[in-house]
């Protein structure tokens, strides 16, 4: 008897085939394995029980970068003897995963420093457990010929390693050495015309280090593109970089050799250290040391600094010659993608003095991922290199599963107690736990059998009902499960085997209680409801195009969700080109010819949305802040009503108070182009409504939102409360001149502030007051209120980068101060208006630290108050929650009141998450279509 399996998930380019091969030899199983466009195909010529045992071992001992999200199983008539690895199959539908890049692993790092190893100080060392992936891949399947490494022929030694199934570099597609691999070059600015190299390989690195010591600016080609580097302890060098790049205040990230170097400049706790050590080497925001020797203009007037550890051998080589941290900021024109080709550095030739380049092409550029830690949880600001692209099955990830199990256990605890007492108290679980199979949560195998015997005897009648519903095939190995407190268990006869299969760290394959009634439960395509929720993945293919700022996109295809890396702000042609180029590569890689529909933001003038309109695509629109909340609901699989706090800088909204089914056609609400053009020109022609404008759709007012409290479910939302709108004086100009925002709020509330008014020139002030009197553009954005408050408290008249103002407030925050400003709720037309007059009055009186602390604590208290009143789980999303002080205080308040809340952990809180919210909405549309 033989069985064929298709393993899906992160299974190519991670050493999966050699791992399976060596495991098969250890187990003595017969079969073969190969890559295909659908994943990894495995044939086992063994009994079904033997296959299950082998797969259980595989799941429990996967290579570091591997993750199995789904397994398809079928019976086969083929026979085989021994075990072999076959060449990749290329004639199949595309479902394999494009993997993200990875930093250097510990084994490769040890070889890099080992003078006896043939890859000693090799600048491009890698193996199946680390190295470039996404940056070099052109198409699937992931074979060398489909990557930019095809330009490098393997030497005899590398070829031997590549073909040796017992070697760590077996089928490692970027494999190379000093003899046959890429070359590094140091070049001067003149090389843009001459192409001349100053030095090569390690000599180039050494010369590069010398130039850094001299205070020069280096354009350094990393894994995903060029960085601009300089000595992070050299005040003059940092000043020069800021002046040349026209980046006067925005904080700069620094790269350190290792954690020992990083701890010289920042306070780093255990969770932050673990995050810094992750293979994808993210930038982590940590607290600066007061005695830090970093140049003070690295992160001026802030108490945190972004640090990442050297991600590759090329970077580690620099630290062979320097003992100081390096500024490492993306080499790009403002708002454009990172530069990945030396030829394109001409755009920045006035910024850099020398460039460290290499001759392996970067096919897919990417920036670093950025995060900070709150408690023990990671919060993402940007998810890019090392994290994205990401592909997973609908609802099948461990975090969703674990959260769902926790919810189920909480909801069903009383029911469990009733069941236990009804049976005389003899069925008590070890450690009082419930158990579940098919991937959510498991207790240890040692006590499983007895518990399952107890459960089986208790639930025999219920089991019989489930058996009949499934077509009469009772064996669990043929897929039968029985609900115990709505948590699936199984009959005792095969308990130990199935528990062992299920209870591995990769049990997420069946994370939502996947069950098929006529084949093995572990390999089903069908699902059953949990708490009345149907988690079956509907058929269909659509694209969620995300927001215009901090853009990412996501594709849904028949249960697969494919999330792009960070694209950026779609305000320039270069970034728009990157969006469509990346989209086309994804479509080609996953065999997508067309989409059933496009899910887009409600905003009518986003550039990428308009492009799809010109292509006559069917477009379904989802309001921006509703999508924010949906992104978190989707991460946790929330279906019932939640209380969403969507706090950010901007989002196109509506004023109607009735529940809105966003999927309905908006053809009757086409914008009045003439009116739009007047509004746009009045703002200087640059606005595109991303921040300030109001348009009218056939008499329906649409305004700029950003401080929204929403009642949300999968299909609609209702606006319950919002921050009191205020006028945007000057439209788009107020985003930079935040003193305009403060002036507008002071005028709105008639708050006397002679010292603040004195900051304006007399004639200018009068013009602004006149503009306020006739203003028609209003916003409820909490992000803009933060800006206005910081203008008062920090004396800021203007800002030079997004979030500069709230970051200054966060630096002033003191958790030891007992300050909490009031935010008053006022009922108006069935909606509550959040007034903040008192906070601004106090800001004119209190010391800056007290004001910043009181303001942040007041917002956190408001969230807890509303959550307690509405008695719904709170969902937090939007860029305002990137403020660490606010997020920590909000979580503390909610937990002290024992209120349920959800914050994103797998996604960002900012606009990068919008695409995932749109996907979640699009799935509900497909599900409704299938019901019809």
Which properties best describe this structure?
single chain, alpha+beta, DHBP synthase, 12-stranded mixed β-sheet, 36 strands
Polypeptide structure, described:
By secondary structure, this protein is α+β, with helices and mostly antiparallel strands. Among the domains are: 2-85, Alpha-Beta Plaits (2-Layer Sandwich), CATH 3.30.70; 184-370, DHBP synthase (Alpha-Beta Complex); 398-523, no CATH class; 695-907, Nucleotidyltransferase, domain 5, CATH 3.30.420.40. Helix content is 32%, strand content 19%. Strands 6, 7, 8, 9, 10, 11, 12, 13, 14, 15, 16 and 17 form a twelve-stranded mixed beta sheet that branches. The chain has a seven-stranded mixed beta sheet with strand order 33-34-30-29-26-35-36, sandwiched between helices. A hairpin with a 2-residue loop joins strand 22 and strand 23. The longest helix has 25 residues, at 398-422. The two termini are 42 Å apart. Residues 395-406, 426-535 and 656-702 have low confidence and may be disordered.
Spell out the blueprint of helices and strands.
Elements: E1 2-10, H1 16-27, E2 31-36, E3 39-44, H2 48-60, E4 67-76, E5 83-85, H3 106-113, H4 156-162, E6 184-188, H5 191-194, E7 199-200, H6 201-213, E8 218-221, E9 226-231, H7 235-245, E10 254-256, H8 259-262, E11 266-267, H9 270-276, E12 283-288, E13 304-309, H10 313-318, E14 326-330, E15 354-358, E16 370-374, E17 377-382, E18 390-393, H11 398-422, H12 448-458, H13 460-469, E19 482-484, E20 487-489, H14 495-502, E21 541-544, E22 554-557, E23 560-563, H15 573-589, E24 597-601, H16 607-614, E25 619-622, H17 624-636, E26 642-652, H18 673-682, E27 695-697, E28 700-702, E29 704-712, E30 717-723, E31 726-727, H19 738-749, H20 754-757, H21 762-773, E32 778-779, H22 782-794, H23 804-812, E33 824-828, E34 831-835, H24 837-843, H25 848-870, E35 874-877, H26 884-896, E36 901-902, H27 914-931
Parallel strand pairs: 2-5, 8-15, 10-13, 12-16, 21-24, 24-25, 26-35, 30-34, 35-36
Antiparallel strand pairs: 1-3, 1-4, 2-3, 6-7, 6-15, 8-9, 9-14, 10-14, 11-12, 12-13, 16-17, 18-23, 19-20, 21-22, 22-23, 26-29, 27-28, 29-30, 31-32, 33-34
Helix pairs in contact: 2-14, 17-27, 19-22, 22-23, 25-26
